[in-house]
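Hi R.,

As promised on Friday, here is the backbone we talked about, encoded as structure tokens. Could you run it through your design pipeline when you get a chance and send me back a sequence?
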């Protein structure tokens, strides 16, 4: 299967910027330790961040084309599911040589809650502020450091170079199973 790389940090499933990274950042103490509290605390941070999060201006460069957007969520992945219940990139194929990108632009409060209800089922792709595409490499830039997560690990940066690593991992899987691989 493929893997990805963000600023030379490898990932197997994916990485995220924006709202989901801010939720992750709130689950860590200033010294880098995970805060105690379990799933209830995690949901509290989701609700609090939905209410008060402010999108950041981002420049995204894909295939030589540059675009500036206010980023609510920007998920780049090889896998389909994040945080157990969120199908942010429901079309991802783990061995197609491409990363799936789900970029959600600035949302009002009602739209935020609406998206939160759609993402667990992967039903957010038809929302006009959701841009979904594939790429083998991207460059993203913010005017300041922002949190981002790579397979759940939290980091901070202002510039991101994201690449696919084709065929990075050899895996054995049941071809008749419920998974996200293609067959050649």
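Update: got your reply. Pasting your designed sequence below so it's all in one thread:
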């Amino acid at each position: 299967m493929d893997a990805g790389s963000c600023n030379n940090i490898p990932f197997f499933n994916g990485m995220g910027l924006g709202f989901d990274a801010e939720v992750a950042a709130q689950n860590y103490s200033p010294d880098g330790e995970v805060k105690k509290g379990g799933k209830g605390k995690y949901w509290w941070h989701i609700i609090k961040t939905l209410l008060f999060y402010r999108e950041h201006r981002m420049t995204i460069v894909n295939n030589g084309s540059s675009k500036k957007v206010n980023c609510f969520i920007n998920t780049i992945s090889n896998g389909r599911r994040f945080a157990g219940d969120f199908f942010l990139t429901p079309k991802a194929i783990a061995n197609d040589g491409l990363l799936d990108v789900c970029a959600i632009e600035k949302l009002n409060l009602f739209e935020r809650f609406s998206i939160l209800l759609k993402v667990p089922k992967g039903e957010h792709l038809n929302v006009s502020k959701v841009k979904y595409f594939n790429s083998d490499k991207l460059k993203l830039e913010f005017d300041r450091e922002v949190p981002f997560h790579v397979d759940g690990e939290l980091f901070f940066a202002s510039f991101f170079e994201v690449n696919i690593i084709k065929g990075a991992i050899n895996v054995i899987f049941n071809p008749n199973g419920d998974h996200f691989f293609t067959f050649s």
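One thing I noticed while checking it: DSSP finds three helices and nine strands in the chain.

Thanks again,
M.
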